[in-house]
Write a structure and sequence with these properties.
D-Maltodextrin-Binding Protein, domain 2, 282 residues, single chain, 11 helices, 6-stranded mixed beta sheet, 3-stranded antiparallel beta sheet, elongated, alpha+beta
């Protein structure tokens, strides 16, 4: 009899424990009262955004080719980078409480280095193209540009059109892996295309007569005509194509892209970008 009573008491105790709430009950709302709204949750930035990582790290890693004046140039005498976009990269790093660290790359590898995480931004006269845009984000454009010829000044009336350039006996020189080579191969079928690996001395090939024409961005032809008085930029105000230059950014990092977009927008409108460009172009 005593065992039966004990089991019955235990059963009653277990039933009461299951039925009891684990925390104080929330009072039921009064009839007709509106339901209580949940407390708003603050939206936090993506945990992996460079907008947080760069200031925490104190370094902005900048991929650049160093071979495309006036935008990026690795000075062999000093071992330091110079150029319009090098100055801009310094400003961007400073705005993020960081310092720039330049990562050497090539035109063929720039986007790949960016997407592989070897740098945070790609700069140096980078043209927006659809193939590049499939792999990377681009910032708000810094300037408009387009492909136009640069030739020896005595030939400036000889190579004004693509038809005049694309003839047997003409040598078109290109640097490998970028939009200059892409443009030449798309439009030159009868002339000879000469691939020259060093974009810092490629214009000497035209001066020396080892090539006749290079088709590159109008901004570069203006600068190189200033550096090489023997060379003339052909109709830089009316290039063969339309393009825009911008900064390449990791795809998917919307917070960082929004910040860089706003920074570029301000730099273009407060005269900062123009100041750096004028220092090289005048």
């Amino acid at each position: 009899m005593k065992r039966a009573v004990t089991l019955s008491a235990l059963a009653v105790l277990l039933a009461a424990t299951v039925a009891a709430p684990s925390s104080p009950a929330t009072p039921a709302p009064a009839p007709g009262a509106a339901p209580t709204a949940a407390a708003p949750v603050a939206k936090r930035p993506h945990p992996g955004t460079l907008l947080d990582t760069v200031p925490r790290r104190g370094v902005l890693r900048v991929c650049t080719t160093g071979d495309y004046r006036p935008f990026t140039y690795l000075d062999p005498k000093t071992g330091k980078y110079r150029g319009v976009d090098i100055e801009m990269a310094r400003d961007l790093a400073k705005s993020l409480d960081a310092k720039p660290r330049y990562v050497a790359t090539t035109w063929a590898k720039l986007v790949g280095d960016l997407t592989a995480g070897r740098c945070d931004i790609g700069v140096g006269g980078v043209s927006i193209t659809l193939p590049r845009a499939r792999a990377a984000y681009f910032s708000e454009p810094t300037r408009e540009d387009g492909k136009t010829p640069i030739v020896r000044c005595e030939d400036k009336d000889k190579y004004r059109t693509l038809q005049q350039i694309d003839r047997p006996g003409t040598t078109v020189v290109v640097n490998p892996g970028g939009t200059n080579e892409d443009f030449a191969r798309a439009h030159v079928k009868r002339a000879t295309i000469k691939v020259y690996p060093d974009n810092t001395t490629i214009f000497d090939e035209i001066v020396a007569g080892r090539a006749d024409v290079m088709m590159t961005d109008a901004s570069e032809t203006r600068y190189q005509a200033k550096v090489h008085p023997e060379l003339c930029s052909v109709h830089p105000d009316k290039p063969f194509s339309f393009s825009e230059k911008a900064y390449a950014l990791p795809r998917g990092d919307d917070e960082f892209k929004a910040y860089v977009d706003q920074w570029v927008h301000l730099a273009k409108n407060d005269g900062t970008y123009r100041k750096y460009e004028d220092a090289w172009m005048k």
